[in-house]
Specification:
Number of domains: 3
CATH topology of the largest domain: Rossmann fold
Order of helices and strands: HHHHHEEHEEHEEHEEHEEEHEHEEE
Oligomer: single chain
Largest sheet: 8 strands, mixed
CATH architecture of the largest domain: 3-Layer(aba) Sandwich
Shape: flat
CATH class of the largest domain: Alpha Beta
Strand order of the largest sheet: 8-7-6-9-12-13-14-15
Number of helices: 11
Mean pLDDT: 75
Distance between the termini: 20 Å
Length: about 425
């Protein structure tokens, strides 16, 4: 549905719309996963984040009629080819100034293409990724336990500034947020109500260490999260792009953690035939990789990443659509079974899940498929770690079935 902006048009087309709207219109191009969708507006591109492709994508977005209001659209349609190119230059400049993209600059005299004939490249910044992945999945980061100071509500209590009405005896290390009433009550209960005698000085209150009470607040904790993203070839097979929605979920989590849980950490691990830890800033460039699904190796890399985080609350959020079909052998070779659910692969993968459980690492799984055998496998993994399993489909990410193995409840989330 087209949105209408009630702003006065000043004649400057580059300022007549919000860059957030443009980023949303370009999302299919910016998050391209290697899936050749014949219905995509950007399907003729070579899946490369070059400045030449960016210019063409912006041109298509401007011509779509979804960016400008009626007055601005009318003026845009009257521009000649040179004026359109100048407008695109202005838009790209604004995208860089507002930190939506980082763009390479061509060498002097090289024009749009570099010395090797390639167009300069660009990358989406963290701010740009936030606008592409704003969907709130806050329930995924629910209460897990007690750890460092953070913003996750827990069942525990601690001394703090935001009180919940109760108080406790002061212990070394508590925030000294004194509960005056409870402290004085303790003094009076121990010494009684002293009355002033005429002609004598009143004795000061004799407060002992054991009298001091402090207000309690809800204890909030921090968490280390690894997003374990399946980029095996099955994510774009069967005429369906599952990988782009998976990247959107990963970016939504990254955005949510950075903005709502500042004490948390988040890392990204990709798994396919093998697994690797990559910077979150490279997420928008990630495309579908080799064919197989080495879930066990992904869990092993995720555990190594979490081991470096000094937090008691640790979780793995696995986003996948495929059954484990590969295994890294002790000698480094990759054992593969394209049919999936190989007994050896499943046994070793579940053993790795057990190691996560022994390390107090919760595994939450976001499943983008409904295959019966795969659902059973995911349920088993979530039950072992008392985690959560979310079942949805790429075209219906807003609604998903939540199986919470901590509370043993099932519900549909909209």
């Amino acid at each position: 549905m087209k949105r209408i902006r009630y702003t006065k048009f000043t004649g400057d087309l580059a300022s007549s719309f919000g860059l957030e709207d443009l980023m949303q219109a370009l999302s299919d191009f910016l998050l391209d996963s290697g899936f050749q969708d014949p219905y995509s507006n950007f399907q003729e591109f070579d899946s490369d984040q070059t400045m030449e492709n960016l210019r063409e994508a912006i041109r298509q977005a401007l011509e779509s009629g979804d960016i400008f209001d009626d007055e601005a659209q009318e003026k845009f349609d009257s521009l000649d080819a040179q004026q359109v190119e100048e407008l695109i230059d202005q838009i790209i400049q604004k995208m860089q100034e507002q930190n939506f993209i980082n763009a390479e600059q061509p060498e002097p005299g090289q024009g749009e293409a570099g010395g090797d004939g390639e167009s300069p490249r660009f990358e989406v910044t963290d701010k740009g990724m936030d606008f592409l992945g704003y969907k709130a999945l806050r329930e995924l980061l629910g209460p897990l336990g007690k750890s460092n100071l953070g913003r996750h509500d827990t069942r525990h209590e601690a001394s703090g500034v935001e009180t919940n009405g109760s108080s406790k005896l002061y212990e070394f290390g508590d925030t000294l947020n004194l509960d005056i009433t409870a402290t004085l009550s303790s003094v009076f209960a121990r010494e009684g109500l002293a009355t002033a005698v005429e002609g004598e000085e009143r004795t000061p209150l004799n407060i002992h260490y054991s009298d001091i009470h402090v207000h309690q607040s809800d204890y909030q904790s921090s968490c280390a999260t690894v997003v374990l993203l399946d980029c095996s070839h099955s994510m774009i097979l069967y005429g369906e792009d599952r990988f782009t929605p998976a990247k959107r979920v990963a970016m939504a989590l990254a955005h949510l953690i950075r903005t709502q849980f500042p004490g948390d950490t988040i890392d990204l691990v990709l798994f396919h035939d093998t697994a690797e830890h990559i910077p979150l800033s490279q997420l928008s460039r990630v495309k579908v990789g080799p064919h197989y699904t080495n879930t066990r190796e992904g869990l092993r890399v995720a555990q190594r990443v979490l081991a470096k985080q000094n937090k008691d609350m640790k979780q793995i959020v696995m986003i996948t659509d495929g059954k484990p079909s590969a295994l890294t052998l002790p000698d480094g070779r990759i054992y593969k079974n394209a049919f999936g659910l190989d007994p050896l692969v499943i046994a070793e993968t579940l053993e790795e899940v057990s190691r996560c459980k022994r390390s107090n690492i919760m595994i939450n799984t976001f499943m983008l498929a409904q295959d019966f055998a795969l659902v059973q496998f995911v349920q088993q993994v979530s039950a072992m770690c008392r985690g959560k399993a979310y079942f949805t489909s790429p075209e219906n990410l807003g609604n998903y079935l939540l199986m919470d193995f901590m509370s043993r409840r099932m519900k549909t989330v909209h």
